[in-house]
Amino acid sequence: MFPGILGTKIGMTHVFDGEGRMVPVTVIQAGPMYVTQIKTLEKDGYNAIQVGFGEMSDKNLTWPKYGHLKKAGVKSNLRHLREFRVDSVDGFSLGQEIKVDVFEAGEAVDAIGISKGRGFAGGVKRHHFRGQHMTHGYMTHRRPLSSGATGPQRVFKGTRKPGHMGTDQVTQSGLKVVSVDSERNLVLLSGSVPGANGALVTVNRSKR
Amino acid sequence: MSKQAILDSVAQPFLKTGVPEIRPGDTVKAHVKVREGGKERIQIFEGTVIAVRHGGIAKNVTLRKLSSQIGVERTFPIHSPNVDKFEVVRRGKVRRAKLYYLRDKIGKAARIAERR
């Protein structure tokens, strides 16, 4: 069974489960993916399947990528190429289609996405600093204040400070597949998934 | 198909049809399915609608009633399969969308005029 699938985050909504409970779900338009390269232990040092997902226009396709896709024999221009490590490459062939039905309802999965960018964020937002009072004469409200002791007269590396936040790769583990619609290439995951709507999401079978 | 259209189509199968129009100030009976000892029965919760939250499948109503002089509020998702049906008993005439002020009023002060 293929270990994961690439998809586009569509957004969130609710569904009702069998017992009438409301479940918040993230809808992901996943696949179809096409096998573009098969990496083997003998040739590449490890076993993996490289797959492509999504569409792009001819205009934006680079010649190296064009050649790579042509070699794999896939028809459409695939925007994203990603590798999935597998134990054995048996049963995979170039150009093979992989659809969302690699998952079934009830399975535990991890979702990997690129979190929304927050720009240059302060310590309160970025590291959950408590900040100071908003009133009662305080003239500092959201500053980081002390950066450490006066003992070593320097600030330790890795001290939490304001700075750039977001656009990091984030893995959300422990999600459950609520339902799979292989006709429309949709998969519903319980809970939220990192990233903006329309962003690339990798859904992996949970390692735990 | 736009992203919103896909989301709507995912929620569509869960939406109920034939739900009466429920507005703030109305008195509504909610027929709730209760499961006890493996058996299912219907329990009725009747109260005044003090809030309606919209949002497609997430639409819900908050009902308030006085149960032995204690105010009780329950929120029901309109499209929940655990609510068999809603029944509008009386239409109320109110000038606000959220009637939270009723929490501080009892007896005569908490009356709502009927809408015709």
Describe this structure in words.
The complex is a heterodimer of chains A (208) and B (116). Chain A has two domains: 4-119 and 168-205, Translation factors (Elongation Factor Tu (Ef-tu), domain 3); 120-165, no CATH class. Chain A has helices at 41-44, 63-72, 123-127; strands at residues 4-16, 22-30, 33-39, 48-55, 78-85, 97-98, 108-114, 119-121, 163-165, 169-181, 186-190, 200-205. Chain A has a six-stranded antiparallel barrel with strand order 1-2-11-10-7-12. Chain A is mainly beta and 208 residues long. In chain A, 9% of the residues lie in helices and 40% in strands. Chain A has three helices and twelve strands, in the order βββαβαββββαββββ. With 116 residues, chain B is mostly beta strands. Helices cover 8% and strands 46% of the residues of chain B. Chain B contains one helix and seven strands; from the N terminus they run αβββββββ. The longest helix of chain B has 9 residues, at 3-11. The mean pLDDT of chain B is 90. Classes of the chains: A mainly beta (208), B mainly beta (116). The A-B interface holds A 10-16, 20, 22, 25, 27, 29, 184, 186, 188, 197-198 and B 3-4, 6-7, 10-11, 14, 33, 56-58, 77, 79-82.
